[in-house]
Amino acid sequence: MTADKTYPFIGLLLLGVLGLSACGGSNDAKPPATVTPPVTPPSVTPVSGLDSRPANPDCVAPDVMAAVGTSITLERYFPNLTFNRPLVFIQAPGNTSRWYVVEQAGVVKVFANDQATGTATDFIDIRSWVNSGGEKGLLGMAFHPDFQNNGYVYLSYTAGNLESRISRFTSPDGGQSLDPASEVIILSVTQPYGNHNGGHIAFGPDGYLYIGLGDGGSGGDPAGNGQNTKTLLGAMLRIDVNVSATDWSAGIRYSIPSSNPFASSASCAAEGCPEIYAWGLRNPWRWSFDSGTGDLWLADVGQNQWEEVDLIELGGNYGWNIREGAHCYGGGACITIALNEPVAEYDHSNGDFSITGGYVYRGSASPGLLGKYLFGDFGSGRIWSLDYYNDPAAAAVELIDTTYNISSFAQGHDGELYVLSYYSGEIFHIVESSTSGGSTMPSSIKDTGCVDKADPKKPAAGLVPYDINAPFWTDGATKARYLALPDNTTISIDANGDWEFPAGTVLMKNFRLAGKLIETRFLMRHPDGSWNGYSYEWNDAQTDASLVTAGKSKDIAGQSWLYPGSTQCMRCHTAVAKFAVGPETAQLNRDFLYPSTGRTANQLYTFEQIGLFSAGLSGAPDSLPALANPYDSTADLDDRARSWLHSNCAYCHVSGGPTPAAMDLHYATPMSGMNICNTSPLHGGLGLTDPRLLAPAEPARSVISARIRLRDVNGMPPLGSSLIDSSGTAMVDSWINGLDGSCL
After folding, report:
1. Superfamily of domain 72-432
2. Closest to 475 (Cα-Cα) out of 507, 518, 508
3. Residue 567 CA to chain centroid, in angstroms?
4. pLDDT interval class at 331 (50, 70, 90)
5. What are phi and psi of 368, to 5 degrees?
6. What are 19-31's pLDDT values in tens digits?
7. What is the 3 state secondary structure string of 260-294?
8. Where are the chain's structural domains?
9. Which of 54, 202, 597, 723 has a 20 to 30 Å separation from 249 between CA atoms?
10. What is the DSSP string of 87-105?
11. pLDDT-derived band at 353, boundaries 50, 70, 90
C-alpha cells in the first residue's frame, strides 16, 4: 500500500458505529477556495528535477495475486452498460427477455437480455420523490408473482421525510415502463435516522410480500427497536397484498397472514405488530429465498465487530441488540432468552466490515457451487460460500478476493448468480473457475524488482521518488514514497485533479521508526486492471523484508505497529477512492529535492517534463491547487485544518461517499457544502453534551474532535493507528475554536 492511507474514517456506512462516514474519494471536487500556493514563484523560470524518465523494466505489477480458496471468477456481464450505484438486478416473472436494474438515486433501468446491448431505458424515474444518499434511496423492487396479468411492481424507497415506503405501481405495457402516477402506498414506516433502512423486498414462495427493515439507525440501537416487537423497525415483515376488491375500495392495502407471530394483535400497541415475521435484526442488507428449498437467507450487518448470516424462521428472534452475531453486545452478559443462532459469522480483523447477502446457487454453469450459499462483503470485496445443506457446521470458504464494493447479488431465472459493483456500476456473472489464478507476490522484497538487490533499502533505478503536501498520520513514522510506471505508459489527470494510473503501476512506500526501516508497502495495479496492496516486514539486520500474508502487530520502539494484510489494505484503497488515494495534483504540487540530480524542483513540472503525464498540465503549477502542510504553524490555520481533514478523512467523507452521513471534507468544498456545521451526528454523540459533528467554537461538543482522539472501536482511524496525532488534533481544535456560529 501507499499514499499515506491506513484507512482512517473507514466503513462506517454500514458499521453504524460512527457519526462520521467512511471511505470515499472525491470525484466531483469544486475549484479550491482556500489553498496554499506552491512555493515556486511565477517569476522564476521553472526547472525540472530530473533530466529524463528512468527506464523501468523490472518494477511492474505481476498478474493478480491468487487468493487462498479462490474457485470462482467474475465475468463482466453486459459489458457495454454501466449503472449509477446499482442495488437490484432482476427479471420479471416468466420473462427472460429483459433485465431491470434499480439505481439508488431513484431510477429503474430496463434493457434487452442481449450481451451486446448498449442501451438501457428508464423503466421508471422517481428521483424527485426519493431521499437518496448513504443508506437511503430506492432500495428494493419486487414483481408481483402474477405480473404478466396484473402488471404490478412494488418499490421500496426512502421518502423525503425519512419515511420507508412500500408502494405499488402498474406497468401499462407489459414491462417496458412503469407509470409513476399509478403509485399506491401500501405501507410506510417513519425512520428516526438516515441509516439502517434495510429496504429489500421480495415475494416469498408462499405468495406473501416480505419486507426487511433495519433498527432505525444511529449506533447501538439506542431505542432498543431490535427487541421491541411493538415497532416495525429491526424486523422482517410479511404481508398479503392480494386483498379483495371490496377491501381495496375501503382503503385496505394488505392483510396479515394468519400464521404471523402476532397476527391476532389488533395493532402494534397491543401484543406486537401483526406484520412482523421475525425480529432482532440490525440492518438486513440483502436477503433471498432459496429457489430449491424456500429457505430465507439473510445477511445482517454488524455494529463494529461481527457480521452474520441468518436462516430466518417464522417467529425467530435474531438477537440484536442483545447480541452482535453470536456474541454479547456491549461487554455485558446476554439476557437469557431464546435467540436464534447465526448460521455463520465473521469479524473485522481481515478488513471486512459490512456483509452483503447473496443466494443459494441453483444454476448449471458452475456445478461445484450447487446448493451453496454465496455472500460477500461490501468493504473488502471478498466472496464466500457456505455449504450448509451438506454440513450445517461447515465454515464459510473464501471463493475470491475482489476490489469491488459489492452492493448486491442477483439471481436469474436459470439459477445463475451475479454481483453488482456499487461504485463502478458494473454487473458480473459468477462462474466457477477451472484455474488456480495468477502468480503470488515473492516472499522476499529483493525479488519484487522494485528494490536494489545489492542494497534492498534503496529503490530500483526505475522508480521515481515523490512527496506530498499533507501527509496522513501514521503514528509518527517517517515515510519515503516512490512510483513506477511500465515503460511507454502514462498517468492521466481528470478535471478534479485525480490521477488515473495505467495497469502495471507500482506505488511503494518505506516506513521508518526511530531511524530504522520497519516496513515497505506496495500498492499495485495488476495487468487485469485490479488493485491490491502488499506489506513487507523488515528484519532487524535491515538486509531483507518478508511478505506479510496476514495482518500482524509488533512492538517497535515502544509502540504497537500494524503490518496490514492485503485485504486490510483494500479497506482503504477502494474504487470510490480511486485506489491510489495519495498521488493527486493538490498533494504533489510542491517542490522536492531529487537525490539523483541534487536539484530542487516542482514535482508536477518535473513529471510533465519527463513525460509521465498523458497530456500537459492544465496550467502552470503556481496556478494549480496545492494543499497546505498541516504541521506548518506559519501557514493559514484554515488551510492547515482543511488539508488535514482532506488527507485523513476526505477520501471517505465526500459527496456521494459510501456512508449514511452527507459529510464532504474535500479541501475544496465550501463550508456550506461540508454538511458538518451544527449538524447532529447519526451514530451517537460519544457522551458529549448536545453533540454536533462540528459545533463552532466548541471542540468539546464536536464529534469530529472526539473521534480523532479515540483509539477504540469508536475512534478515527479505526485501523492501523494506536497513537493519537496530538499536533494534528490540537490544530483541528484551534480551527474549530476560531469558527463563528455559521462556521466561518
Report:
1. TolB, C-terminal domain (2.120.10.30)
2. 518
3. 13
4. low
5. -70, -15
6. 333 333 333 333 3
7. CCCCCCCCCCCCCCCCEEEECCCCEEEEEECCCCC
8. 12-62+442-737, 72-432
9. 202
10. EEEE--TT--SEEEEEETT
11. confident
